[in-house]
C-alpha cells in the first residue's frame, strides 16, 4: 500500500535553503508539527524568531549582541523582539528604499522647492506603495511625510520584493543605476 504523508520541513526565510540534518533527513514522518526537526535545526545553528527561520549562514550576532539577519532584520538576542534602526535625512540618498508606517517607497529627495506639496521638507519619492491596500503611486510626488514627523527605516528584503512586484504588476521596473522608473508594455495588451 502507498499512503500519502504530509511532513514539515524547515526553510530559511532569507535564502530558501532547507535544513538537512547529519543523517541527510529534512523531516520525519512521526513529527507532524515539525518540532523534532526544528530542534535539530536550532541545535545546528539555525534561528527561529517568531514565525521566521534563518539558517546558520543568514544571521550573525553583532557587537551589541543583536541578531542581525541577511534580509535586514535585527532582533534582541534575549527576547527576540525586533529592533528598528531608524534613519535620519542625512543617512539616506537618492534611490534608497525606505519604509515609514505602512508605506514602502523609493526615496528621491526633499521637495525643497515645494514642487509637489506645501512644505519645503516633504519627502519626494519615485514610487510608493501602501502595504495594507493595493495602492501604488508613481512619482515624483510627495506624500509619505517628512523626517522628524515619522520614523523611517531601510526597507527589509521582503518589503523591497513586494514593492518591485507591485511595480512590475503595474508595468514599471526600477533602474537603480539610472535612478528612474521604466515603463514597459505588459504582454497581452494590458
- Average pLDDT number: 89
Proportion of helical residues: 10-25%
Structure class: mainly beta
Task: Compute the number of structural domains.
Answer: 2
Strand order of the largest sheet: 6-11-7-8-9-10
Over the alpha carbons, how many angstroms does the gyration radius reach? 21 Å
Which stretches of 5+ consecutive residues score pLDDT under 50? none
Largest sheet: 6 strands, antiparallel
**What order do the helices and strands follow?**
HEEEEEEEEEEEHEE
N/C terminus separation: 50 Å
Total helical segments: 2
> Can you tell me the overall shape?
elongated
Number of strands: 13
Tell me what portion of residues adopts beta-strand conformation: 25-35%
Lay out the secondary structure:
Layout lengths: L34 H9 L3 E3 L2 E3 L4 E3 L4 E4 L4 E3 L9 E2 L9 E4 L2 E8 L12 E8 L5 E7 L9 E3 L2 H13 L2 E4 L4 E4 L7
Structure description:
There is one protein chain. This protein has two helices and 13 strands; from the N terminus they run αβββββββββββαββ. With 190 residues, it is mostly beta strands. It has two domains: 1-83, no CATH class; 86-183, no CATH class. The strands form four sheets. The chain has a six-stranded antiparallel β-sheet, covered by helices on one side. The protein has a three-stranded antiparallel β-sheet with strand order 3-4-5, with no helix packed on it.
Entry summary:
The protein is mainly β and 190 residues long.
